[in-house]
Design a protein that fits this description.
Layout: E1 13-16, E2 25-28, E3 30-32, H1 42-55, E4 59-60, H2 68-71, E5 77-81, H3 97-104, E6 109-115, E7 126-128, H4 135-141, E8 149-151, H5 161-174, E9 180-185, H6 189-202, E10 208-212, H7 223-228, H8 233-246, E11 254-258, H9 264-271, E12 277-280, H10 282-287, H11 310-313, H12 318-342, E13 357-361, E14 364-367, H13 368-371, H14 379-382, H15 388-396
Parallel strand pairs: 3-12, 4-5, 5-6, 6-9, 9-10, 10-11, 11-12
Antiparallel strand pairs: 1-2, 7-8, 13-14
Helix pairs in contact: 1-12, 5-6, 6-8, 6-15, 9-12
Length: 410
Amino acid sequence: MRPAPLSDPSSFRVTVGGPQCSQPYAASVFNISAMSFGSLSANAIRALNQGAKLGNFAHDTGEGSISPYHREHGGDLTWELGSGYFGCRTSDGRFDPERFATQAQNPQVRMIEIKMSQGAKPGHGGILPKHKVTKEIAETRGIMMGEDCVSPSRHSAFSTPLEMMHFIPQLRELSGGKPVGFKFCLGHPWEFMGIAKAMLETGILPDFIVVDGKEGGTGAAPVEFTDHIGVPMREGLLFVHNTLVGLNLRDKIKLGASGKIVSAFDIASVLAIGADWANSARGFMFAIGCIQSQSCHTNKCPTGVATQDALRQRALVVPDKAQRVFNFHRNTLKALAEMLAAAGLEHPSQLSAKHLVRRMSATEIKLFSQLHVFLKPGELLTGEVNGEFYSRMWQMARADSFEPQEVAAA
């Protein structure tokens, strides 16, 4: 009834960096999600990073490490650290602290993201076929040419929630105090709650968590995984948000969300149920010319986005596509600002579950605040939990293992 004044979209930022971080980062509420050099072409990386520089938002490197093309234009980087430790690995594929520190302390790197799993193929690992491994990719990732580049399905630097928590301050110290977090697609709920129990036991907190959804895309995912494995992003986000609220940790840890986010309403819909910011891969892929030809694995991408063929890459004109990346980000946040103003709000952080409505049937609608279970602050700590599901998952969770504890039937 009373729209708010239209806010400046450039003010739509969130400070990432908890009490244990000395170099917090003021991130945009809309950033480029993880896509690696190797999967994408040099020109695609150039265009994405130049667009991020123009628009003052973050560009996630993907697990393929930081290439020379990420550095050309100086756009803010979130360095994703996958199980292959590309860019900071020993000859046998384990984590190398010295090589990590050398890269992580570069001022262009603003945040460090441990990739536990990704949406379209959680728990699977990945492969870059040897015919796509060029000399540049091999040097960027620290791998051998003439061999398939394999990302293991799990990390070697840690194997339990407690070990994972101790890995986080190691990365934070080696990076010079930058925000360190992790990304994952929720699978077994007790596994994330085990990580949360490890946070309480150690007192170590990640600065942020990115929740990826099973609907998140990659052309490298097996169809069975794409169709059936992992929790959708919104359900996973709500579960992570609730768990942190129930442990009085939500105000200390920022949440990102990724998985089929392409529009201003998509961003609003995840911020309303717990996210602090959103990441998009496919939206920015479209901006640089992806036509979903589904030929990524062939090295014959017709638009130069997902190929290492120098001739085919010429189809992607960097200055033109960088401007489109910038325009997509700017116009999406402008649309978000207009939506917020129409709802009587001035900043995305004011969005909550009461602002979303879902039609349940031809004769019934419900607010999201009525539709979903929302835990109260500290509820998991007191044991008086709203909902048997959360209570049972909490009992099953273990800080010393990702395996569940056996819990007697109610």
